[in-house]
Amino acid sequence: MKAGRIILLLLLPGLAQGYPLDDEIMGIRRLPGFRPGSSYSVEALLMPPGALRGRESIVLHLTEEQARSGELGRRDEALSGVLKRVLGANGDCSAVLLDYTRGRERQWAGVAEEQPGAPASVGKLLVVLSLFHELARVRPEVAKRVELLRGRLVAGGEWLRGDDHTIPLYQAAEDRVIWRQAEETERFSLMEWLDHLFTASSNAAANVVWKEALLMRRFGEAYPPDEASEAAFFRQSGLWEEVRRGLSEAMAAAELSSEAFRVGNFWTRRARERVPGGGGSTATARELARFLLRLEQGRLVDEWSSLEMKRLLYFTGRRHRFAAGESLAGSALYYKGGSLPGPRETVMNAVSLVESPARSGSGQRRYLVTLLCRLPTGEAESTLQRLGDALGREMAWP
Questions:
Q1: CA distance 294 to 301
Q2: Nearest 5 degrees, angle CA 168-CA 173-CA 178?
Q3: What is the overall mean pLDDT for the chain?
Q4: Measured over all CA atoms, what is the biggest interatomic distance in the chain, rounded to whole angstroms?
Q5: What is the C-alpha to C-alpha distance for residues 240 and 277, in angstroms, rounded to an integer?
Q6: How far apart are CA 45 and CA 184, in angstroms?
Q7: What is the DSSP letter of 327?
Q8: Closest CA to 235 of 274, 291, 273, 268
Q9: pTM, whole model, 2 decimals?
Q10: Residue 236: is its pLDDT beyond 50?
Q11: Distance in angstroms (rounded) separating the CA atoms of residues 127 and 121
Q12: d(CA 106, CA 16)
């Protein structure tokens, strides 16, 4: 590997998180550039062992009838001690830790778990839920959903304006990956927009995904509409109420609270001009934990949708923030983070399913963690990394 290429990689604005790299089903065009053997395969050298699982090895663990019932489980004093030791004096955090290791009683602990906070980009989980909810309505058959996710190509247009996130693009002719902002006329499949949403937490991708969910809701089986019909639809007023209603349906179907976890607007100023929001954004560590639990139970829309969401959450690539803890290197993480920087304090959030070690088996420990923190600006990322590392060590088998 040439030194120049390694230097170039380390200077890139981001490294991809998203989908399992061996996938050949969903048509995500960036994936070949990140596989071992490509010119960009130094990326694989930077991946911890837990980031290299294949598509078929990712499964839902709580889909049996008994596991699908009930709430978080029994509140446990030992886990409370773990959580308090991990958090220590590290800023102002609310948190939930839930252990659902196979063969053990489900148990959890919380610290200020009902305290509301700003979800930041963790709120993009609701955008993804909205799309899968509407997708199941317009295409009940799974094969038709896959066909639409792969085959519906969408240009971002004005919905991209105001976002400075970059996305990874694989240039097959040169066998290289570049990172840049998406162009307004550039067309990606729905699945690729979902991947961009997780790969670099792209606000533009979140806008496009939510916009398409809204079109599915409006046009039903006639989705996708022609350009004239789409343009006429977005000239209407009161569209946010349709967004809110669709999301409330999806949350209620999973017995989740759209009051305890909600997002009150699109992700950029231009998108908010097109569809003015309302109601504000909020989350609690407890409701985020319930959201992740419902995913593992296959109760976010249905089992197929829940599994696809889990694959999208799978953390491949060089890890950062909470996920970068050394003790988590051998674990599979299904992760979403979010931050809102301020002059003195930074909102720094993380939600993750953890399977440790990454390989399946009777010795695998499974737990989830949700964190909503306000940390001193300048120390926020390193503090969150220390929290992740401390939690991994505390939760390791003795």
A1: 10
A2: 20
A3: 90
A4: 62
A5: 6
A6: 33
A7: G
A8: 274
A9: 0.93
A10: yes
A11: 10
A12: 32
